[in-house]
Specification:
It is a single chain. This protein is an all-alpha fold. 76% of the residues lie in helices and 2% in strands. The protein has one domain. It is elongated, with a radius of gyration of 16 Å. The termini are close together. It holds the Pfam family Peptidase_A24. Keywords: Membrane, Transmembrane, Transmembrane helix.
């Protein structure tokens, strides 16, 4: 994401500012949701649902303002559809996980997955896959640490939202755009 911001700084100031606003919103949303999910095991609709509109408008606006039809914001050759497709694919993936094993995944995680898919889809499919993998890796390592430290058992409930957010953030920061 940082590389994409750098590219936009030199080519399109409106796209740069829209993408920067999307990044700032992500950071604020992630911080709020992490605190709430850790404390209450809940990802509130009053934060997640508006995030679809805010992230969607900012990311689509940045893609349109940049005026490019290549890169991550493309799906099946249609410019900017990658943003929406990323959100839809992640939402469906997490929804299937919820259907297969309901106690293992809350519906708040499913709803959050769509928002994260918008951000990762803006950057490309590699980001969608790496962000999702990183979420499960971080969550699994945390679960292992909880078991090893004897602070929980295999039946312990662990909020997954913070790991989803961390995985998405890691993919946005580490992978080149």
């Amino acid at each position: 994401m940082i590389r994409r911001l750098g590219e936009l700084w030199g080519t399109s100031f409106p796209a740069f500012w829209l993408l920067l606003a999307a990044c700032v919103y992500f950071a604020i949303m992630a911080a709020r949701l992490t605190v709430i999910d850790v404390r209450h095991h809940l990802l509130p609709n009053r934060i997640v649902f508006p995030s679809y509109a805010i992230a969607g408008v900012l990311l689509l606006g940045a893609a349109i303002a940049a005026g490019t039809s290549d890169g991550g914001a493309s799906f099946l050759g249609v410019p900017y559809l990658g943003i929406v497709a990323g959100g839809a694919v992640l939402w469906v993936f997490y929804f299937i996980l919820r259907l297969v094993y309901p106690p293992g995944m809350g519906f708040g995680d499913v709803k959050l997955a769509g928002v994260l898919g918008l951000y990762l889809g803006y950057l490309g499919w590699a980001h969608v896959f790496v962000g999702t993998f990183a979420a499960f890796l971080f969550g699994g390592l945390w679960g292992l640490a909880v078991l090893v430290s004897r602070r929980g058992t295999l039946k312990s409930s662990i909020p997954f939202g913070p790991f989803m957010l961390a995985g998405a953030a890691a993919a946005m920061l580490v992978l080149p755009a």
